[in-house]
Amino acid sequence: MGFRKKTNKNPPVLSHEFIIQNHADIVSCVAMVFLLGLMFEVGLGLLRRNALCVSLSEGLSEESVVNHFHHGLKDLATVFFYMLVAIIIHAIIQEYVLDKINRKMHFSKTKHSKFNESGQLSAFYLFSFGWGTSILMSENFLSNPVSLWDGYPHTLMPFQMKFYFISQMGYWLHALPEIYFQKTKKEDIPRQLVYISLYLVHIAGAYILNLNRLALVLLVLHCFVELLFHVSRLVYFSNEKRQTGFSIWAVLFVLGRLLTLSLSVLTVGFGLSNADQQGLDLANGNFNVLIVRITVLATICVTQAFMMWKFINFQLRRWREQAQVQPVKPKKPQAPKTKSKKDKANGVNGVSSNGADSPRAKKEKSS
């Protein structure tokens, strides 16, 4: 599996440049250790004990038994493994897709980094949106919104939903070492750390607090809006005159924030507050108490306000750039003033039109 970039220099082994150039190969070897462990009975036994599975077979035939899963501390090992997988996939997309496009387009350094970022995130958001939508359709969460809070705590999840959240956490964890692998500029590091932390806090928080149904709906909505933005930015890099996608994204972004707040208040503020099971019960995964509900709503509201603030700054900066690009209309040259008949006859300042002194000027000179 060769993911190394072709270079003329061979950096020293275990140096920074060596690790950056060969990080995908190194991570692949670590992932192989996990896969080799699954080939033995001991590894398979550990995997079975790690997946806390419950079969829901009441009123169902043996062929239609549905397995549901809990979450637990052993999920950390699974998240770590899929973080390694995400690093490998990231390297494949970067070398075999994005780098080839960059060579053809000859982007500047600024556009080069932004193009790589949008290319990677477009692939991730497209995958997340399609996968999340299929789960919503199969679980009928869209046709029955009451199920977002009905029966809380939702400690049992179908395999696809549990795998979805583990993959999300694995992807955003992989973004942390990618800051080093991609040689991110120092001025861009704080911005990336902020949005990576926001993703991890919200996804892991919903996963632990058993708010996975609400989180799934909001993630699908958010992935669709972000997918449109990054696709629009890729189109803009290919042709700067194509900016229609940004206008559509701006409208959907505001609607997405309003819908996110509405669903959150409806589910947490009204649905859970009127649920049958109230109180804090860590053994059963019940966190339906007032302080937790207020914390969840406050976190969501602050995050949405922060995103709107960034959105407004982005729009203002974009409008300023458009105003600077617009050409300034040149002023029309003023027509020269016409000389009066007296000046034409006597000449201006004692000089006639043919360059000789006028009779009046000669008289003044002689005197």
Number of helices: 12
Radius of gyration: 33 Å
Order of strands across the biggest sheet?
Answer: 1-2-3
Order of helices and strands: HHHEEHHEHHHHEEHHH
Our measurement of the CA-to-CA distance between the termini, rounded to an integer number of angstroms, reads: 106 Å
Number of strands: 5
The geometry reads as: globular
Largest sheet: 3 strands, antiparallel
Structural class: mainly alpha
Mean pLDDT: 82
Low-confidence stretches: 1-6, 348-355
Strand content of the residues, in percent? under 5%
Helix fraction by DSSP (H/I, runs of at least 4): 55-70%
How would you sum up this structure in a few lines?
With 367 residues, the protein is mainly α. It is 66% helix and 4% strand. The N terminus is likely disordered.
Protein described:
The strands form 2 sheets. The chain has a 3-stranded antiparallel beta sheet. A two-stranded antiparallel sheet has the order 4-5. Helix 5 runs antiparallel to helix 8 (212-238) and helix 9 (244-271) runs antiparallel to helix 10 (290-325). 66% of the residues lie in helices and 4% in strands. The chain has helices at residues 16-21, 23-37, 41-50, 75-105, 109-139, 159-181, 189-208, 212-238, 244-271, 290-325, 341-346, 359-366, and strands at 53-56, 66-69, 157-158, 279-281, 286-288. It is built from 12 helices and 5 strands. With 367 residues, it is mainly alpha-helical.
List keywords for this structure.
12 helices; two-stranded antiparallel sheet; 3-stranded antiparallel beta sheet; 5 strands; globular; 66% helix; 367 residues; mainly alpha; disordered N terminus
